[in-house]
Specification:
Helix content: 55-70%
Number of domains: 2
Strand content: 5-15%
Number of helices: 11
């Protein structure tokens, strides 16, 4: 007896199984892609911002100079801050950002600095002087001592420690990853529940044939394999459909994400390992469907006289 005789495609709850698996794979792939993208982004943020701080020197009142040049008083404060940074242990390198680099940081919010009129606008703004400071990984810097030294130079000079902001961002990212993992677990349970329901319905619909095979001496493993093979093919079919829809959705999302500018979003392109993991989802769904169907049939057979 062929498997399609026990679980036909055109009757019973089993005919909806491929579509249910397709929906489950679609949501699982989206959740997995989001979790993997967040994991990659977290690693990028950690690498880019680890062991770095920024010292901000606000411009003095009435010290604005066209095109972002630094006047004598601002230059004196900058030199004093640089000396304080050099004198602080644990600081590996300190580089002041020029006006063009500061304008580059403002481009995601103000647009391209090369546009007519916008370059003059940025040049006329009283922009603060920023110093990019790299800390030594093996020797922690005493930021409290540095803050006291900078306060003597100017009370409005402050340190922007990226570690505090980065820590909050990483915790948020990790929380979202755990939520995505919880979604994957719930999707697996929901898939198993649907397979159990469909398998029981098919088993009941063909109870007479199953009982006849059972009386004729067919082993439980043989009967279970009939249901298992049919569930495997239907699960694989649904998984491929879901993966195809997911690929289309991710392509559209990647095109939309490419228009986003800013250091926070970065590059959310999935790595080859992440793409391979998503490509294996139909096989995982098919294996889960087949295993669940087999366990369900064996349980039903164990209750037969």
């Amino acid at each position: 007896m062929a498997a399609e005789d026990l679980i036909p495609d055109s009757e019973g709850a089993g005919r909806f199984l491929p579509w249910v698996v397709a929906v489950m794979v679609f949501f699982a792939a989206l959740a997995g892609a989001a979790a993997l993208a967040l994991q990659q982004a977290t690693g990028t943020w950690r690498n880019d911002m680890a062991n770095t701080i920024t010292v901000e020197i606000p411009p003095l009142k009435n010290s604005k100079v066209p095109q972002g040049n630094v006047n004598t008083l601002d230059q004196a404060r900058l030199n004093a801050v640089m000396k304080a940074l050099v004198a602080t242990a644990g600081i590996n390198k300190a580089e002041p950002l020029v006006a063009a680099e500061i304008a580059k940081l403002l481009e995601p919010w103000l647009g391209d600095n090369s546009m007519d009129g916008l370059g003059n606008l940025i040049g006329d703004l009283p922009l603060p002087q920023l110093i990019d400071v790299h800390l030594s990984p093996g020797q922690p810097a005493d930021l409290s001592l540095l803050a006291k030294r900078l306060a003597k130079i100017g009370p409005d000079i402050h340190i922007d420690d990226h570690q505090i902001w980065l820590g909050k961002l990483i915790r948020l990212s990790q929380s979202l990853q755990w939520m995505m993992l919880a979604c994957l677990v719930m999707i697996c349970f929901a898939t198993c529940a649907v397979v159990i329901f469909g398998t029981r319905a098919a088993f009941t619909a063909h109870a007479e044939v199953v009982q006849l095979l059972h009386v004729m001496g067919a082993q439980d493993g043989y009967i279970a394999r009939l249901f298992q093979w049919r569930a495997l093919t239907m699960g694989l079919k649904g998984g491929l459909i879901g993966l195809t829809v997911t690929a289309i959705a991710l392509f559209i999302l990647s095109r939309l994400a490419a228009d986003l500018e800013g250091p926070l979003f970065g590059n959310f392109t999935l790595s080859p390992f992440a793409l391979l993991s998503l490509a294996l989802l139909p096989l995982v769904a098919a294996a889960l469907t087949a295993f669940t169907a087999r366990r369900t049939v064996l349980r039903e057979l164990s209750q037969l006289p």
